[in-house]
Amino acid sequence: MKNLLLTGFTSLAMGFTVSTAAMAGETTNSFDEKHKTCLEQIAIDADIAYEDAMAWRGDGGGRRARHCEAMALFALGHKEEAAHRLDQLGEMVGVISPAMRKTYYLEAANFWLMSEETGKAYASASAGLDIDREDTGLRIARARVYALLDRYADSETDLTSALVFDANNAAALRYRADARLKLDKLALAKSDIDRSMMADPTSIETALVRGHIIEAQRLRRQTPVAEPIAAPIDAPVITE
To answer: What are the extents of the domains in the chain?
Structure first.
């Protein structure tokens, strides 16, 4: 069921573009407005957006231009190159604010996950968590890396930490339910997936994990419990 860890990425990637554009739109200076326009252009024509971002970078567009370049590359199918460039932005200590750097690391981690580059995804998520240990998105990203490596106990731990700061996060609950299913903690997994379903009733991924958990519970109920083997009645008693 590892493929469930890689579902929903088309909408996730679109969400990055939309959410980042919304973030840029909250400010009024010309660089942020141009960043917003550049990101919006990706949905219309990613090739043009990439060319515009390169030209803007040459004109001093800085990290905003570089970010738009990376997102355009992702839209054009170059996930690894996009992730690499986002990591480079995250590494710009003293030039870019910590809040922005951790956002770039999160985007990079998710793009590396899409490419199934677990080592690089782990490095990006961990670098972001070095900036902010309480970031829910980064905790989820690293937990998904652990799950892809079959390290379900570590995945459960990271997701539990994420839920401390965001108790009703539907994605964190779903991923923890999946990890607990793998660890055969079926009652806890069912509790998590029910909470995830309440938080996001429309999630197909949640419904799939819930189905797997219900089936595992059904199979457990049907599995006969082995009777203990009794010692023969006339077995000798051994004493020292």
So the answer is: 9-164
pLDDT tens digits along 109-163: 999 999 999 999 999 999 999 999 999 999 999 999 999 999 999 999 999 999 9
Contact 132, 101 (CB under 8 A): no
* Residue partners of 44: CB distance under 8 A and separation at least 6: none
Q: Dump pLDDT digits (tens) for 194-233.
A: 999 999 999 999 999 999 999 999 999 997 765 556 555 5
> How many angstroms separate the first and last alpha carbons of the chain?
53
Q: Apex CA 235: angle with CA 231 and CA 239, to 5°?
A: 110
**Using CA atoms, how far apart are residues 205 and 153, in angstroms rounded to an integer?**
21
The one-letter code for the residue type at 77 is G
Global confidence as pTM: 0.79
Kindly report the CATH class assigned to 9-164: mainly alpha
Q: Which of 169, 44, 39, 168 is nearest to 107 (CA)?
A: 39
Here the tokens at position 179 are 């990890």
Q: How far apart are CA 24 and CA 38, in angstroms?
A: 11
